Amino acid sequence: MKNTLQRTILHMDMDAFFASVEQAANPGLRDRAIAIVGAGKRTVVTTASYEARALGIKTGMSRFEATKICPQLTFVIANNRKYTDTSVRIMKILEEFSPLVEPCSVDEAFLDITGTEKCLGSPEQIGRNIKTRIKEGTGLTASIGIGPNKLISKLASDIEKPDGLVIVKEEDVEALLKDLPVNELCGIGKKTTSALSALGIHTCADLGTYPIGQLRAHFGITGEQLSLMGRGIDTRRVMTTGEQEPVKSLGHSTTLPKDVSNMEDLARIILQLSEAVGARARRYNLNGKTITITIRFSDFRTITRRKTISTPTQDSHAISKVALALMDAERLSQPVRLLGVSISSLSNSDPDLAQHGQGDLFQDKESRIKTDKRLAAMDRVNRRYGSATITWGTLFKEYDDSGVISPAWRPSGPRKIDVK
Ligand SMILES: [Mg+2]
Q: Under a CB-based contact definition with an 8 Å cutoff, are residues 2 and 170 in contact?
């Protein structure tokens, strides 16, 4: 089947991004096996350099596992600021090549380069030029895939990693997908893979030729989507950040350095998470009406509890009050491994109105303005000097800014950080 409108989509994916940024910044780390980790005790490897990958180091390994496999491995604590700054620079470079740039994570983006041949050269030339500009501008290598749609270009960028450039033409899609295992397609995870496997579907060709009716019977409306994916068809547009759906929720979660059952300690962490959520909400001028907490117990059982309040808020105290009440209402039968706080049902706050304090109807106007001023000042300092520079007194004891940036981070706009 042929797309009605032929498009040329480019997918850019930085190579071992966090590790490469560190190696570019510090010559002592170059050509060495390094792993980027968070500051916490129970952190895992978020990115390994290619040298470390060659020795068997993988994303998701604990420090302990990684050291066992590779005793000479150098651990580098993640520096989110460095990665986000570099990401912003890379996205700016991409915008020189097309107005249609969709950053899809901290180190990946789609570009629609349809029709740019006349002024920028062939797709291959554009791919080369982008790689050169990124290398010159940041010292880093990117892998690029070019294809008739997002699905295929994303697949292509992975084929020659690192420093790759792969172009897949429409007429080559069928051959590319023929023997490709379905789980190689972006969007088909472990669960779907095993469900497909139960139907005898292993390769993309199996998927693309399977009767749609039966896929629909098994997977509902996604059945159709799966069938299209199996045939390499993807009609999703490249959407710039401005076009994308507004964010639906803002949240922070943390895996605790060790399982915790002491309520006082848990309450302090809830307060800390609420402050992080509130700061982000204020930064993007958003108010949340629904407050949700996530609790994961030591046996990995996970519960979420939510409450909708009458007046949307961005006040950390108002958020924490609800979050704490939700936690208090739970009988915690086991130590807690992870806690998360998020707000949803978001609305834009009117910058002319002081709304921070509206979570508390009994707070008079004067003290509300005071709260606003205090929050704004705190946010200003924290934005400038790091997230925990000024925080609520009760947080001082063990505030540990060990979070590694979510790979889903994008250069603009608020993001939901999912509970992993
Ligand atoms: Mg990457």
A: yes
CATH homologous superfamily, domain 246-398: DNA polymerase, Y-family, little finger domain (3.30.1490.100)
Q: Determine the distance separating the centroid of ligand 1 and the alpha carbon of 182, expressed in angstroms.
A: 21
Q: Which tens digit of pLDDT belongs to each residue from 247-290?
A: 788 888 888 888 999 999 999 999 999 999 998 888 878 899 99
Distance 16 CA to ligand 1 centre (A): 5
Distance CA(94)–CA(108), nearest Å, equals 11
Phi and psi angles of residue 286, each rounded to the nearest 5 degrees, phi first: -120, 145
pLDDT of residue 418: 36
**How many whole angstroms from 107 Cα to the centroid of ligand 1?**
5
Q: Which residues, other chains included, contact 405 with Cβ-Cβ below 8 Å and sequence gap of 6+?
A: 78, 80, 83, 84, 106
Strands (E) across 15-83 are located at: 34-37, 47-48, 74-77
Active site residue 108: yes
Distance (Å, whole) CA 54 – CA 24:
19
Comparing C-alpha atoms, which of 43, 27, 108, 37 is closest to residue 75? Answer: 37
* CA 256/CA 294 separation, integer angstroms: 13
Domain 1-168, second-level architecture:
2-Layer Sandwich (3.30)
CA distance 134 to 141: 7
CB-based contacts of 395: which residues, under 8 Å, 6+ apart? 268, 271, 272, 275, 388
State the distance from the centre of ligand 1 to the C-alpha of 123, rounded, in angstroms. 21
Structure tokens at 24: 């570019």
Q: In the structure, what pLDDT confidence band is assigned to residue 406 with cuts at 50, 70 and 90?
A: low
Q: Report the CATH number of the 174-230 domain.
A: 1.10.150.20
Spatial separation of the C-alpha atoms in residues 352 and 354, rounded to whole Å? 7
Cα–Cα distance, 279 to 193 (Å, whole number): 39
Among candidate residues 22, 108, 243, 398, the one labeled active-site is 108
Place of tokens 């993807």: 234
Domains of the chain, residue spans? 1-168, 174-230, 246-398
Please give the residue that has the higher pLDDT: either 118 or 32: 32
For ligand 1, an ion, list residues with CB under 5 A: 13-14, 17, 107
Q: What is the DSSP letter of 46?
A: S
Stated as kind and residue range, the H or E segment containing 211 is none
Query: Kind and range of the H or E element at 9?
Result: strand 9-14
